[in-house]
Amino acid sequence: MAKGTTIRMWRRTIFVLVVLIAVGFGAIIFSLARLQLVEGESLQTRAVDQQLKDTSISAQRGTIYDCNMKPLAQSATVWKVVLEPAFITDKNREKIADGLSKILGMDKNEIMERSKKKTYYDELKRKVETDVKDEVLKFKSDNEIGSGIRLIEDYKRYYPYGAFAASVLGFTGTDSQGLYGIEKQYDSYLTGVPGKLVTAKNAIGTDMPFQYEQKVEAQNGSSLVLTIDEVVQHFLEKNLQEGVITNKVGNRACGIVMNVKTGAILGMAVKGDFDPNNPFTVADQTEAAQIAAMPEGTAKNDALKAAREKQWRNKAVSDTYYPGSVFKMVTGSSAMEEGVVNENSTFFCSGSIKVSDRTIHCWRSYGHGSENFVQGLCNSCNPVFVQLGERLGPDNFFKYFTAFGLTAKTGIDLPGESRSIFYTAAQLNPVELATESFGQNFSITPIQMITAAAAVANGGYLVQPHVVSQIVDADGNIVKTADTTPKRQVISTDISQRMCKILQTNATIGTAKNGYLPGYRVGGKTGTSQKMDVFQKTGTMQYIASYCGFAPADDPQVAMLVFYDEPHGDSYYGAAVAGPVFSRTMEEILPYLGVERKYTDTELAKLDVTAPDVVGKTVAQAKADLVKIKLTPKVYGSGEKVVSQVPEPGKTIPQNGTVVLFMDDSGASKTATVPKLVGLSLSAANKRAADAGINISISGAALTNGNNPISNSQSIAEGTKVAPGTVVTVGFIEPNQVE
Amino acid sequence: MTKTKEKQHAAPRGSRKAEADRDTKEPATSGIRKKFRIFSVRSGMDMPFLFLILTLLVIGLVMLFSASYANAYYRHGSSYFFISRQAFFAVLGVAAMIFISYFDYHHLHKFAIPILLVSFMALALVLFTPRINGVHRWIDLGPLGQFQPSEVAKFGMILVFSHLISLNFKRMDTFRYGVLPYILILGATVGLLVLEPHISATVIMVILAGVMLFIGGVRLRWFGLAFGGAGAAVAYLVLFTQKFSYANDRIVAWLDPFSTASKAIMEDTWQTRQSLYAIGSGGLLGLGLGQSRQKYLYLPEPQNDFIFAIVCEELGFIGALIIIILFAMLVWRGISISLKAKDKFGMLLGIGLVVQVGLQVVLNIAVVTNTIPNTGISLPFFSYGGTSLVILLAEMGIVLSISRTSAIEKT
């Protein structure tokens, strides 16, 4: 027998070898093939799931511009301070917590605790300004902290004008999501698409050094170009706010300025609004103090919530009201269009009218007597419009009511638009029809009212009110442009033009004359509506004073609605409360918008003149020049020739005004004190101004054929020291004007 | 003994082998002196086998570096922590291997019983060391790192079995000489291993012993008896004792490594899951050398038992297959060498050592791929471990020594 391998050993060894190779190696190769080739993809997906981490990259929210590209809302870069506990060692933990707590004003112990978390990402503080970021960076470099604190770019919303156009703009929440106003309505456009930074991480969550990094850039949000004009908005807000104070308005006010041809909203203001930079702060200080004084608890929280919701609510689109007499322009237009009335149709007002079994009173209890349609509208005579409603009948009345867009939302691109409440044709029995004819008994929103008024003015074409004219993407491409084509024609162009003339008459000599502006051909209608719902609840009658008008009446361009809810001043009538605000605002925005003044002869006779240049002339010459154009010279000093004059050459000066001539340098020290010029008749105001040695320029109702205008505003405050001869503009209204 | 061996070997095996023949013939002319030579260079060693060892060793070192540097960096502060140590032991091991290949393996007859006794002592000693991960498995050799007595025990058993079988070859069909001594040795070894506990080593020991006895000519009926007895014992332990609860948990984890049933199971299967993720991520072609993601602390200790998962992730199925084929070739070549060894001692010793390598490869990759439950088996030439690498290379040196007198063609 051999010493080496026997046959049996051979056989058995080969058996072992075959088993080892075939079964053993075969099995592991089979397993590998299954795992890598068959299940590979799904295992890889699971592996990648745990290996990758997403870091969100904020997208910059789009800017909101006014129509002249002035930014009204923009996002600026701020910073997120992020703790990376995985990188913080026990050695530097204390130092980091201490440093950060000081810079960020946070609790040190809290930072200590959070730095011990088993994670690599813990947001410490958001929306940190750049100066704080720099402090953190300095702290890092000073203490040679390489990792453990990270700063990530973020954005914060700024409203550079503060409490301005707040109801339109709305505001954003902490994550820059739009919560109210345009910010909410156009949130999807403004937001953009956040980017992603996908990096590989190891099992403890820190970055893996192998090259896997995928960056999906954030897509910045689109910007909006509004139809709002910052200048128009500014004038509107200023005058609206003044009115709120003078008239002791209890439940906020709103004003809308609209381009009647396109539906573009040039200005929309709510007073009793908020600062979108701090939307959660109650802006009304009295209310804020009341809430602050309340004991902690549900009641306080509820009060706070209610106050916030109130200030955020956009009255112009969310509140409904009885439009009152303003609505008469709609009834009048409808009746003229249907041919049931014309300018010369005659009516008789006895002070009331009987409809079915009800007696409906005119606002003037003793009646207007015999009047034609134009006079009826100028008088805002209820019985006239009750008769127009009767003549139209429920079906026609409702047809026009619908056509003027009062049954449906206007579809303005702002959130929270309310539905109107009204009777359908079938529900309109005579009494309801009669009351609706003069604007009571149905509720619409201010935006619906001005849209209907714009249709009356704009050749009968009903336009789509809107606040955004263009959406521009981050690369500057125009994504969307507002459609300004009219929705439909409600009344004929002829009727529209005739109605404009009637409303112009109304704003010149009628109940709406407080909206009058010389040269601007204003057409308008006042409204005073009773808040029946409040009366039924509390027993006290509250009013809404409104004025709706447009200019110029021969080619209407701009319409404006001013609306005061619950005025508690000297008057609650639209004519006295809203009219002056309307005219003052129009006086400022019409020249800005480039609407030309065209004076009638009557207006020309009362127009201001330009002060001639008499400097350097002798006293005699100067006096002669001034007298020639009916100005009164007043001489100070004893020089040979005129050294200076007030008003200066080229300045406007009322007719029959005084020009002060200084013959030596003493003029610089001479002053006059502006006297109290409000609450006076035209002649009294003139006299007081002359006594004080100043000039007055009159505006408002005193320029028309008014009865008893009384001044209610002066451009320079009482008691101010001014140079003699300075021109103070004094506004006049017809205080007793009702309706 | 040596004289007769030479005769068997004297026949020329082809013209190309002239040099090898001369080497084998040379010592024959001075047979007397050879008796006293520890080193008996009779012939060249088997070059294909050496080449396979060195190839696997180099690939193993490269992969160890790739798999370990992230872990080394995070745990030890230096990316080179593992590779520098392993490279040192590799050089030491290769030197030992070459040195031992010149050593006449017949001298090992004399060492068989002493080494067995040393391994018993080491296995007993390890039971008094502090537990690491709940088991007594390592003896700390200070600067030389940790050392597993089971490594020595495996060698000791292979050696003593080869020794006894070759001496009692003709009586292998008897119980007294063919079964009893081996049962006693195996029983003692397994008993000590179970106390550690060290299931994987136990399994390897039992299979190795079976293979050696099988080849050594033990009657098949004893195997039937052994399988029956082992089955009954395992069934008893699993069913009626808590001893194998440790194994039971692993079996639960094995059946569904993605189970989210309990936190304990999820923690238990973490390693297996991460291994499967790594293997799956590799796909056909792999992520590329050095590109593993799972080695970034996902796969615990990627330099140890689960290194092959990283190999699969980086080199893909193709790369893994090539490595498995290299191992298979190593086994094949080693067995071929052994079959042509000039005596039964060399044959059995060679087969024992080579099968041990093959068995470890199969079991290791089976664990990594979750083909069998997770148990600690290192991958030869790849897994980190200085002493075990040196022992492995020394064992390969013995195979090379056998190859010097083997009748195999050595190119």
TrEMBL record, chain A:
Keywords: Membrane, Transmembrane, Transmembrane helix. This is PASTA domain-containing protein. SMART domains: PASTA. The keyword Chaperone does not apply. It comes from Caproiciproducens faecalis. InterPro entries: Beta-lactam/transpept, Beta-lactam/transpept-like, PASTA_dom, PBP_dimer, PBP_dimer_sf, PCN-bd_Tpept. The chain crosses the membrane at residues 12-33. Its main location: membrane.
